[in-house]
User: Fold Sulfonate transport system substrate-binding protein from Paraburkholderia tropica.
Amino acid sequence: MSTRRDFLKLSLGAAATALPLLGTLAPSRAFAASGARTLRIGNQKGALSILKGRGTLETRLAPLGVSVTWTEFNAGPVQLEALNVGSIDFGDVGDAPPIFAQAAGAPLAYVAATLPRSQSEAVLVPHDSTLRTVADLKGKRVAFNKGSNVHYFLVQLLRHHGLDYRDVRPVFLAPADARAAFENGSIDAWVIWDPFYAAAQATLGARVLADASGVVGNRGYYFSSLDYAKRNPDVIRTLIDEIAKADDWGKQHRSEYAGELAKLWGLPAPIVEQAVARTQFGTVPITKAILGEQQKIADTFLELGLVPRRIDVYEAAAPGVA
Assistant:
């Protein structure tokens, strides 16, 4: 249990404390061109870490005169903060953090996306809960990470079932604290993503009230800065191609992929295998339609008072978006 708790504390739960930092970031610094080129990647413990371990990206970029450096982060918002202050050129993130980063003036550019991963987030209830439908959430205490992908999912799920966000009693908790609250019965439901979702099923007997299928996409995104993407389209193309290859390998070798992630996350292999089993693998280009999905999230967060102003997500389109 200690390994799992360490993971819960140090991983995506850090997003809750990182979000406020985005409002106080220093102005972004322009990419400084020099003779040799560098690609500075910020990675979480996930797909990019697996790519790092294989070394294929460095081999592909060497003929272009590009060196690669890697910096590991424990949450997407911290990666975006690093981008805003000019410390990295590329990273991976969920669908919610870029909204806050753009609202804070970060010069980010969406350069690729995953396929929708709707089955990888869900509303969980205790196995003996009397809650059976989404409508049963009315008046109940529902825990989730404020300003996250599951915050948006919950809002849309409630609307999908004829309820309003104000019909539930939100309890804002990072994953580690939400798990503890779920375990001791101080909340009625928990909205969470994998691998926390799979861990709760395996170790707490959590029951799925609803996942995000047919409600929201829950994509992951790869980002750069607008300036770097404009100056280095060949580097970005090569990088996305290598990510897509690793993604395709994971789709065909789910057990081995899960094994690598289990080592990175410090979680038992069966838990990670369950999370990987419902993962939709695939890397796709950014389109206006995909940016439209992000715009809906941004507009929803504005309605909820989570961002201070309306943002135009299309301003974060990398050059060449169709």
